[in-house]
Amino acid sequence: MNWFAKPKFFSQEQMEDIHAKSLDLLATKGVIFKSPKAVKILEEKGAKVDGEIVYIPESLVNECLKTVPSTFTMDAVNPDRAVTIGGDLIIHPAGGEVFLKDAQDKRYSSATIQNFSDLQKIYQACDNINMTGYQPLSPDDVPLETRGLHCLYETMLYTDKPWLAPMDYVSGADKRRELGMYEVVFGSDYVKDHYLSWSIVTPESPLLYSEFSCESIIEFASFNQPVALVSAPMSGITSPIHLLGTIILANTESLAGLVLAQCVRSGVPVLPSASLTYGNMKLATWECASPDSALMLAGAVQMYKDFYHLPARAQTGVTSSKQVDYQAGYETMQSLLLTALMDVDVTSQSAGSLENLMTISFEKTIIDDEVIARVRRIIAGIPYDEEMASIDMIKEIPHGETYLKNKATRKYFRKGWEPAMADWNSYDMWQTRDPKEIEMRAAKKAREIIDAATPLLEAGTQKALQDYIAKYE
Description:
Blueprint: H1 12-29, E1 31-33, H2 36-44, E2 48-50, E3 53-55, H3 58-65, E4 72-74, E5 83-85, E6 90-91, E7 99-101, E8 107-108, H4 113-125, E9 132-133, H5 147-158, E10 163-164, H6 172-186, H7 188-193, E11 199-201, E12 208-209, H8 211-222, E13 227-231, H9 243-264, E14 270-274, E15 278-280, E16 285-287, H10 291-307, E17 313-315, H11 326-341, E18 346-348, E19 353-354, E20 359-361, H12 362-380, H13 386-389, H14 391-396, H15 407-412, H16 427-431, H17 438-452, H18 459-471
Parallel strand pairs: 1-12, 6-18, 7-20, 9-10, 11-13, 13-14, 14-17, 17-18
Antiparallel strand pairs: 1-3, 2-3, 4-5, 7-8, 15-16, 19-20
C-alpha cells in the first residue's frame, strides 16, 4: 500500500476531459476489430458497425465500466503465495525479450528451455517478485507449436507463486490449451471459479484489435480469467507526437478492449496496462527508459487508478542500457519509483530486462529484486504514532549524549532495511570481498539458486502434465 500523497499529473477536470475525448473517439472514429465474432458480440450489445469498424457509444462504455472489479485475487498452487491485484505493488516477470546476456557480457540470440527453467528458479527465490512464468525467454530447442506448453510446465515444476501463461500463441485455441494445463493441476471446476492467469492483449495502435487479440479476450473472458490490456503506442510513430495525445489514444484503446471483455462476460477482471513509449526520431528507435516514457506511464496510471478506479499495470523499471551498469541502475529506478509512487498495482519488465526490453539478464534479475525492495520500503513511508515520535526518549536522553543504549534502539535496530546485493561495508572490508563487482556477486547468487532448486510438483502431477503436452506433439 502506498501511503504517500500521490503525485498528480492531471486535475480532476483534466481527467474528465481525457475521458470525454476518449468517448468521442470511440463513438465517432471507431475501433477496428478484425474478428467477425467480436464485431457481432459488440453489435448485439448496442455498438454501431461498419464492416470491421465498431463505433462504441458512451452508454455502453459507462455500463461496462460499472461491472469491472477494482480488485481481484490471483491464486497459486501454494495458497500462501496468492496475490491481490489492486492495493499492493505486485511484480511479475519480464516478457518478450529476444536475447540472453551473461555476466561476461556475452549476448546470445537463442535460448534453451533450460535457460527458461533456470530463470523461473530465480523468480521463485526472489522475495520481491510475486508472480512467475510469462515469457522472459523464448526457447529454441522445443517445438514452436508447443513451446508455450513446455515453458508453462517448467514454471509449474519449479515455482509455487501465481503462474502467468506465456505469450507464445498463434490463435485463441493455443490459449485454450494452456488453460487446460491449469485444469490438470487444479481441476476444471477450480479453474472456473478462481483467477489463475491472465491473457496479455495488445491492440495494434492506432485503434485496431487483430483477430488474435480479439480471440484472446473472448477465450479468457469466456473462461472467467482476467484480461490484461497492454496498449503500447509509440509517440510520433504509432500515436501522436505529443505525450498527452498518446495517453488519450492508449486510454481509448484500453476502453475498447474493456468493453469487449465485459460484453463477453460481465464482471470479468480487466487490468489496463500503461506501456506507452517515447519514439526517438533521431535514432529511429523507441525509448522505454526516456523520462517522457516515465511521464506517460504515470499519467496513464493516474487515469486507470484515480478516474476509473481500476487496478493498473505498467511496463516500468526498464532501461535501454546494454549492460548491468550505472545507466541500467538509474533508468530502472527512474520509472519504477515514479509509477510506484503513483500507486501502480502490477509491474512488468521490472526484473532483469535490458536494451529496451530486448535482452534478459539473470544477474540483473537478482539485483533488481533489491531495487524493488528499496521501492517497497520508500512507498511504505514513515509510521506516525506517539511511540515513533520519540518525545519521551528525546526528553530522557541528556543533551549531547548517545541513544545507543536506549531500550528502543536495542528493540528496533535489527529491524532496519538492509541490502541483499549492494555493499555497505567499509572500503577496507569491500577490498576483501570476492567478487567485488555487484554483477559478479549476482552471478554467484544465481548459480547457487539454480543448483539448489528442486521440483515442487508431485510425481503424478508431473506425469499428467507431460502426457498432456505429448498429446499436442
